[in-house]
Amino acid sequence: MTRPQSYLEPLNVRGRIARAQPLGLPILNLGFNELPYPPSPGVAQALAERAQKLGSYGSPGCDLLRAKLGEVHGLDPEHIICGNGSEELIDVIARNFLRPGDEMLISQFGYIQFEMTAHRIGATLKKAPEVDYTTDPQALLAATGPHTKIVFLANPNNPTGTMLPAEDVVQLASDMPENVVLVLDLAYGEFAGEAYCQAMHRIVERQNNVIVLRTFSKAFGMAGVRVGWAHAPDWMLPGFYAARGMGSVNGMAQAAGGAALGEMDVIQARVAEIVSERDRVAGVLRQMGMTVVPSQSNFLLVKLVEATPDDTEALVEHLFDTCGIIVNRTREAGLEPFMRFSLSLPDHNDLLLTGIRAFLDAR
Ligand SMILES: *Cc1c(COP(=O)(O)O)cnc(C)c1O
């Protein structure tokens, strides 16, 4: 029987454990780079109040939220666009600058959503080799060609957690051909520090072709409401609004984002706790003899020494079966022996360490 043609198929990139937790333990998902905290008091209150006005649309231009973002970060709100998570903005940017036959360039272990976006648009994806699981700016520049329209680069990067020093990004941006868009994804920027983020925003102000992407999903712990934003040269914004849906950032999300920006001290304290836990857990894992990729983010990419992908699979299953912990099984080419997990509350992290130690002892 004939049927309509479908152009897209899912890109399956991760294996997930499908069975129920065998001991009936609570599930602790450390696989999505989320933060473990409840909403800060101001955010909870703003959500409750906005819920009383569910009949009204949010502002299509996210006017109040953009004004607050401008104030907190010292940016012109007219150079900011918000989206339904930065995920939507990756898509919006790509739809504005890419068509089939155009090239998107990313780093070898670049964020998987960049690849998914290229796939969705039918653009050609090119990857530049990394050194020590870190972006190599020279390799990226060398890989640009006449069809390159856009370069997506996350610092710190997911899934590696590594980042380029700010000076190297500044240099890369100024060496980038002027007709190529360079997108600097700062989803984990808060973990790299405010000075780093500010250095990235300055590049946007200096150049015509650089965009910074940020999100409330990671350091702000608000992945569930879906808000991200882009800081871009103002000439780009009309194209982005044309590519984005009118009401994509819902009213609840706008209210929550605005409230969170009024409680930056809470966010900073949480980021500090996660960073200190990250360094503690990395130290313990190295003592246990594991390979830990140096991370500037809220997660770690680790592997057993001389691990095959099967060994890693066994560890991932052991953590689920004995502790109820879900970690992320990286299956990208070249990262098969690794697994990735986000840092959580100290008790959660200790449970993970106990699980890994038991696995190593029984090996
Ligand atoms: C999580 C993540 C994002 C996007 O998250 P949203 O929830 O869509 O804002 C973007 N880039 C990287 C590198 C990420 O890890």
Tags for this model:
363 residues, alpha/beta, Aspartate Aminotransferase, domain 1, 2 domains, four-stranded antiparallel sheet, 42% helix, binds pyridoxal-5'-phosphate
Structural commentary:
Helix content is 42%, strand content 15%. The chain is α/β, with parallel strands linked by helices and 363 residues long. It has two domains: 28-39 and 265-362, Aspartate Aminotransferase, domain 1, CATH 3.90.1150; 41-262, Aspartate Aminotransferase, domain 2 (3-Layer(aba) Sandwich). The strands form three sheets. A seven-stranded mixed sheet has the order 2-8-7-6-5-3-4, sandwiched between helices. Helix 2 (63-73) runs parallel beside helix 10 (251-261), helix 3 (85-97) crosses helix 4 and helix 12 packs across helix 13. The longest helix is centred in the C-terminal third of the chain and has 24 residues, at 264-287. Pyridoxal-5'-phosphate is lined by residues 33, 85-87, 111, 154, 158, 185, 187, 215, 217-218, 223, 228.
> If you average the pLDDT, what whole number results?
96
**Mind summarizing the main beta sheet?**
7 strands, mixed
Write out the CATH superfamily name of the largest domain: Type I PLP-dependent aspartate aminotransferase-like (Major domain)
Please identify the structural class as seen in this structure. alpha/beta
Helix content: 40-55%
Q: Figure out the total of helices.
A: 13
The level-1 CATH class of the largest domain: Alpha Beta
Distance between the termini: 54 Å
Strand content: 5-15%
- Topology-level CATH name of the largest domain: Aspartate Aminotransferase, domain 2
Secondary structure tally: strands: 13
Report the radius of gyration as a whole number of Å.
21 Å
CATH architecture assignment of the largest domain: 3-Layer(aba) Sandwich
Spatial order of the strands forming the largest sheet: 2-8-7-6-5-3-4
Number of domains: 2
Hetero groups in this structure are:
pyridoxal-5'-phosphate
The sequence of SSEs as H and E is EHHEHEHEHEHEHHEEHHHEEHEEEH
Shape: globular
Stretches with pLDDT under 50, minimum 5 residues = none
